[in-house]
Amino acid sequence: MSDYLRQNKANWDQRAPLHAASRGYGAEAFVSDPAYLSDVVRFDLPRLGGIAGLRGVHLQCHIGTDTLSLARLGARMSGLDFSPASLEQARLLAQRCGAEISYVESDLYAADQVLPAGAFDFVYTGIGALIWLPRIDDWARVVAALLKPGGRLFIREGHPMLLAVNEAREDGLVIEYPYFECAEPVAWDDDRTYVDTDTPLTATRTYEWNHGLGEIVSALFRHGLQLSALEEHDSLPWEALPGRMVVDGAGEWRLAKDRWRLPLSYTLQAVKRA
């Protein structure tokens, strides 16, 4: 594991208990309501289709709220993450909810070594995951290795065009960060996380890599997947541009003015060719 990823892992290990205790992740709602689903999974219910009885794996699962939601829709789920603190919270939540979910600790790029290759009906990746990966081609290789022939990738992610915008510039939508994948990451130093908490982080240094939409699709093509659906959205489930967005009752944030100016997220589906 590179030093970049080690520092990211330390940061996520500190975030995990804060996220699990936050209202935003809704752990208590999951426990009290057996039908409760995460906002992220609920948004894509019309696109997911029937997954009951299918074997699925959630890559970069964090504390497992989306993983649990997919299990509640009837899928036989596994989750994988590189943060042991995140997986501790994911296992605890699954146990409290009586859900049978297998969680595995691993770097994403070794997922096909710690999980059975060619065994999954679908691979799921939730929002806010790909920016933590330095190389999108290796991600696509792992996705292809895990899927059965005819198996499906399902991903909703923040749009790379949004991720190139400087969120601190309130004078306009200013492109200041890479759109395409670069060898060197964008570095951040911040003692906060994105949930309401008074606890500062001490592992404050993190690193991110953007990946253009064409780079993502091309990587999937190279590794034997065929695009089956691609939809860009004018919303996403966090306030990406503070002070310039409004939120709806489902927790989706949109530009307060001229929503047509910028795609904020996308849903992509691809099928592994036989």
UniProtKB/TrEMBL annotation:
Gene3D superfamilies: Vaccinia Virus protein VP39. It comes from Metapseudomonas resinovorans NBRC 106553. CDD domains: AdoMet_MTases. It holds the Pfam family Methyltransf_25. This is Methyltransferase domain-containing protein. It comes from the Bacteria. Residues 60-151 form the Methyltransferase domain. InterPro entries: Methyltransf_25 (IPR041698), SAM-dependent_MTases_sf (IPR029063).
